[in-house]
Amino acid sequence: MRIKAFLLQFSRVLALLALSLGITALNQNFLQPTNLINVVRQASPQIIVSVGMTLVLLTGGIDLSQGAVMTLTSVVTGYFLTQAKVPWPMAALAGLVVGLTCGVVSGVMVAKIKLPSAIATYGLLW
After folding, report:
1. pLDDT given for residue 18 in this prediction
2. Nearest-CA neighbor of 80 among 89, 71, 67?
3. How far apart are the C-alpha atoms of 23 and 13, rounded to whole Å?
4. Are the C-beta atoms of residues 10 and 2 closer than 8 Å to each other?
5. Across 120-126, average pLDDT
6. What is the sign of the dihedral through the CA atoms of 116, 117, 121 and 122?
7. What is the 3 state secondary structure string of the chain?
8. In the prediction, which pLDDT does 1 show?
């Protein structure tokens, strides 16, 4: 009975492991370090956003504005890099300041004004 419960609980992980082993059997380059580094590089924005969303969900809230804030900070950073021609540390700092400002605005709406987090972040989304 314990084995059945374990298999049911970790069925997605086991399916991912089986899929990885199957792909590795078909293509020997799949588990090479260069390919794994490439996968992590391509997935890093989603990993960063999912870590932030996990923290929000663990505290009982919901953040609908994460995608919009990520896009806004990316556009601001890209603008400073390409159009304003500032050094990359300053452009990255500008993006971080914009993201921090958006977070403070939504945090104030939830903590001080007592709006539900879904409403506050939906408003920030637009």
Report:
1. 92
2. 89
3. 15
4. no
5. 90
6. negative
7. CHHHHHHHHCHHHHHHHHHHHHHHHHCCCCCCHHHHHHHHHHHHHHHHHHHHHHHHHHCCCCCCCHHHHHHHHHHHHHHHHHCCCCCHHHHHHHHHHHHHHHHHHHHHHHHCCCCCHHHHHHHHHC
8. 67
88 residue type, one letter? W
pTM of the predicted model as reported, rounded to 2 decimal places:
0.68
Which residue's structure tokens are 């991912």? Answer: 16
Q: What is the mean pLDDT of residues 91-114?
A: 94
Q: How far, in Å, CA of 28 to CA of 113, rounded?
A: 56
pLDDT for the residue 30: 85
User: Comparing C-alpha atoms, which of 74, 28, 56 is closest to residue 120?
Assistant: 56
Taking the C-alpha atoms of residue 25 and residue 46, their distance in angstroms, rounded to an integer, is 28
The residue type at 52 = G
